[in-house]
Design goal:
Helix content: 55-70%
Largest sheet: none
Low-confidence stretches: none
Shape: elongated
Radius of gyration: 18 Å
Order of helices and strands: HHHHH
Structural class: mainly alpha
Distance between the termini: 18 Å
Number of strands: 0
Strand content: under 5%
Number of helices: 5
């Protein structure tokens, strides 16, 4: 999880049911802090965890391991939007989140 989000700033993490229950109680009692954490996580997800970002990263990895020179600028211009991502997922039978 820490590779994708910053623990305690963008997401909460827990190792046991007891910790989970403690965190739920804490954030129920601290609603503003909960909203701020959730907002930071939401912003990061929408900024970095998109099809476009994944495509660029995939092409970087392929390029690194194959020696192929791939034009990442072209990949960045694919311009997938949330609506087009949902259409692609529905066409493939995947469940859009």
């Amino acid at each position: 999880m820490q590779h994708f989000f910053e623990p305690w700033r963008e997401v909460t993490v827990f190792d046991s049911r007891k910790e989970l229950v403690e965190q739920v109680r804490y954030y129920l009692a601290h609603a503003e802090e909960c909203r701020e954490l959730a907002d930071r996580g939401y912003q990061r997800a929408h900024r970095e965890h998109t099809y476009q970002a994944r495509l660029c990263r995939l092409l970087e990895i392929v390029s690194e391991h194959t020696g192929l020179r791939l034009d990442l600028a072209v990949a960045a211009k694919v311009g997938l939007t949330s609506a087009s991502e949902s259409r692609v997922l529905s066409q493939t039978g995947a469940n859009p989140a």
